Amino acid sequence: MPRTASSQPTEVELQILRTLWELGPSTVRDVHNRITETKDTKYSTTVKMLSVMLEKGLVKRDDCVRPQVYRTAASQQRTQKRMLTEMIQKVYDGSATSLVLQALSSTRASKQDLAKIRKLLDQLGIDQ
Amino acid sequence: MPRTASSQPTEVELQILRTLWELGPSTVRDVHNRITETKDTKYSTTVKMLSVMLEKGLVKRDDCVRPQVYRTAASQQRTQKRMLTEMIQKVYDGSATSLVLQALSSTRASKQDLAKIRKLLDQLGIDQ
DNA sequence: ACAGAATAGAGAATTCTTTCGCTAACTATC
DNA sequence: GATAGTTAGCGAAAGAATTCTCTATTCTGT
Known about the structure:
2 copies of one chain form a homodimer. Chain A contains 6 helices and 2 strands; from the N terminus they run αααββααα. The first copy, chain A, is mainly alpha-helical and 128 residues long. The first copy, chain A, binds a DNA duplex (30 and 30 nucleotides) through residues 6, 10-13, 27-29, 41-45, 47-49, 51-52, 66-68.
């Protein structure tokens, strides 16, 4: 039975994606070493998760090299954006603005960050 | 075995929380009617989910009235914020700003919304 | 080429989530 | 107070996600 990528990556899948974002294309060993910094799990579990993710199309694998090298199938940006969109739908009832307001008020953003946001805001204001 | 609230509400739990946010304190029947607008499920499933959520502390129940009335244990704001914080940690590596920038650039916010955000931005800028 | 180590994979066990069937308890109405 | 209808709850089944054990394959150093 072919596995299909459900809407969102699961908990462990996300942890692995994050690792790949951080390390770039990596061997199972690389990923596993990173994972076991925060939790205790067997090497073969990491192998299995990666193979499940491969089936789902979340990652790709280069079999030409040994050991095999895994990389994310979609960019970090693209995946983040998809997850964000789903959160906006499911948690904020489709209102990105509510999410932004809450995110802003619950964080201590630096002057630089605030400036960046203002700049984007200006751009958005123009072509409307 | 006492059930414990894992970090995030699950898919169905969130759906029920959303219903309670929308309807306010409700009977199982109310919740179930709302749920079955979008998916087909038995009444007893809704009962069960609510009882699981009660065990986890996600909802509270008023037994003094018949039928019993359920309501969320934490406010919508509080729950949203907790979920948002976790997303910022797990998906944006702790950078609320990245999340805000992506949310803004992927949405078509109205002039009013942009103004609201600008206003909050100004406030944040001041007391820093 | 061989032994020991690392890597890869398959399948089952485990845990968590979601669903349901069945029964008990309660409510209203006649 | 019998009865039909609704509500509440339990325990098991079904479905997903995650983990492991065990085996096969590949690599490395001698």
